[in-house]
Write the structure tokens for this entry.
Amino acid sequence: MAVSIRFVVKRLLLLIPVLFGVATIVFSILHLSPGDPAIIIAGKNASAEKIAEIRRSLGLDDPIYVQYARFMIDSAQFRFGRSFKVEAGLTVREILRIKLPITLELAVYGQIAGIALGIPAGILSAVKQDTLTDHLTRVGALSGISVPIFWSGPLLILVFAVWFSVLPTSGRIAIDYRVPAVTNMITVDTLLFALGRTLENGFDTDHFAAFGSAVRHLILPAGVIGIYSMALISRMMRSSMLEVIRQDYIRTARAKGQGAKITLMKHGFRNALIPVVTVIGIQFGTLLGGAVLTETVFGIGGIGRLLVEAVQVSDYPVVQGTVLAFAVLFTLVNLFVDMTYSYLDPRIEQ
């Protein structure tokens, strides 16, 4: 059953108050926290007149309600001005256009790895309940949740980059390659570049060398994120599948002579996915916000690291724009989760 347009429009309208609340909270936290952007821009040794001039040019000397109204109007148009410090001179839109796809690409590949490993592991663990396979899977999931990224990242670098020298330690692509930035997602851009060269000159494996380098550079950081994601997904999949296989309709299908594998995959898997989809949606937002550790460990200059630097120097435009961009992405992911619910169980739409 297809998801109705009315259902999608209703969910989109509900996102408006959510984004309004996020914008209000971001504005309040930034203006209540210590630190003055004017002093940071002017420097510690600047005169009071210079600082006052900068505050006036930035509109920071206006009453708080005037600043709030201006901020909300600009937010509705997704205009946040220019960076004060971390990327001085660049507009926030330009910064997000360059940096956000880097973090988004990392989160997407990490989540794909987590889903590809976690769902089969959870199903296998449920089917083989209380066996050695189940115990090993559960221990692996618990380890994945418990091990922090700042420890697992260097460990994977030590094993795969230092000891075996099969993967690079940091960065997004080898310095030998220069690929035009189209989407700022390195794997997409290198693939587009390779396909373009192939259409012009015919197929040659050398055309895909940059793409191969980009993929190799993403394996470790995406793997670190994927391990954590896989752990939660597999545990939720196991619990959900165990609950489903005890339902009466599963017993009825088995009593009619239907094979165990067909029964589970045809009747049980779809219903067991509903709570797992919730975890996947929530995790994706968490991966976006928590990518700063992975980006730091692997030397990837994404929006996560930039956000931390902007908070440290009170770069209001960058912080506000980045947080709201994350909020928009997270709400869109929640919309996709709701649509998936409706597809998996049409009764939810009603």
